[in-house]
Design brief:
Uracil-DNA Glycosylase, subunit E, metal-binding, iron
Amino acid sequence: MPTPAKELSYLNEKIVACRLCPRLVAWREEILKKKPKRFAAESYWSRPVPGFGDPLAELLIVGLAPAAHGGNRTGRIFTGDRSGDFLFETLHRFGYSSSPRSISREDSLVLNKVYITATVRCAPPNNKPSPEEIAHCRPYLIEELRILKNIRVILALGRIAFDNVWQTVKLTFQSQGKSFACKKPSFSHGIEQKLPDGKVLIGSFHPSQQNTFTGKLTQSMFDSVFSRINTLITIG
């Protein structure tokens, strides 16, 4: 029987090879023609970006999508942009990451008890994936949730990720002939909902540069979410 690490490796190979969304494939090629000067000499990943982290994770973090000159450039989720800097500094302080900086796929960073993934695996124009593109990527999240059997808490970064996690869990239950009677709460920062399988879904504002620079998401607000996560994992 394959280990979780091997299953995730197989799944990530499928993700990287995916070409289901013509608009996103075309956008990846367009990005290569518009590299900013600071990255002009770099070779871009320019493929779907797979998940990354601990196969025995207890915390699953779900973002929106790779940034055009972040994950789409480096090939690692939340790596190479300000959102990732904010996230990994927090993960490091709370003991989930061996380093406060995620620089590239080749660095020595190791995640502990956390796995990071995204709603959509390719960088979308204007950071706005279509409903069809979200639906195309949903089976990958379903598989990640199946493989990551130790997950106790799911942290959704932003409204789109929150809604997608909710829909993914609901569809999974329904496909198994199980009842899913929960009513989806309205998204807000720090919103918390226990799911029928015992996992806890938490919502947070996305650590985008726009949110952190304007103060919509402060470090103390983000820390409060992770403090709650640690409590839930400890008592879970």
